[in-house]
Hints:
mainly alpha, 66% helix
Amino acid sequence: MSKVSLSPLLASIRLTPNLPAQSWYLIAGVTLTTLNRPDDIAHLFQYAIDKDGGSAEKCLHIARRTREALIKAAAIGGLPKTINALLALKGATPKTLIDEPLGYSPTERPVEVYDIPTSKTLGRGQSFFDQIYGKLSKKVMEQMDRSGTEDLGITVRLMYGYILSNTNVLSAAESSFVLIAGLIPQDVSVRSYSFNYSTLLGLTSPRR
């Protein structure tokens, strides 16, 4: 999609009524990632910076939130698409807005992986899963465990524990919007019902 045709679409999403503040570029980024359009990510980022940046602090805020949305999109759209999108985003991001390896991590995931007990992180993930699926939570997880390999249930627990339930950059409600944005382009909106429901209820951030 050309910059000329993409800009009106981004403007429309940005001005959509009732969206949480600063969520429009997260939704757009995850949708483009799910559709495997990494080349459009650079234009989206520049558009977001032009419209909502204004200061170095705000630009860094946008960059980190966009990266986190794309990381969480891997749970819905697949890791290869997220890799393509993040590399395209890095190519369009000034060095001052990039978090280098072994430096400060706004998500604190390295700490969670190496220093926090696994049981604590997985417990947080289970709480987030329970919030999203509500009364269906136990049934859905049992389906995962009995899918023919319980490794599916383990994969879901790891994804929710270490990726989706981390709310240091994106809130629980924003993460829910990210999941919805990744589901809809894939025509799996039936599965998105619980995410919509939780968002409307004002999903609260799980504690670490």
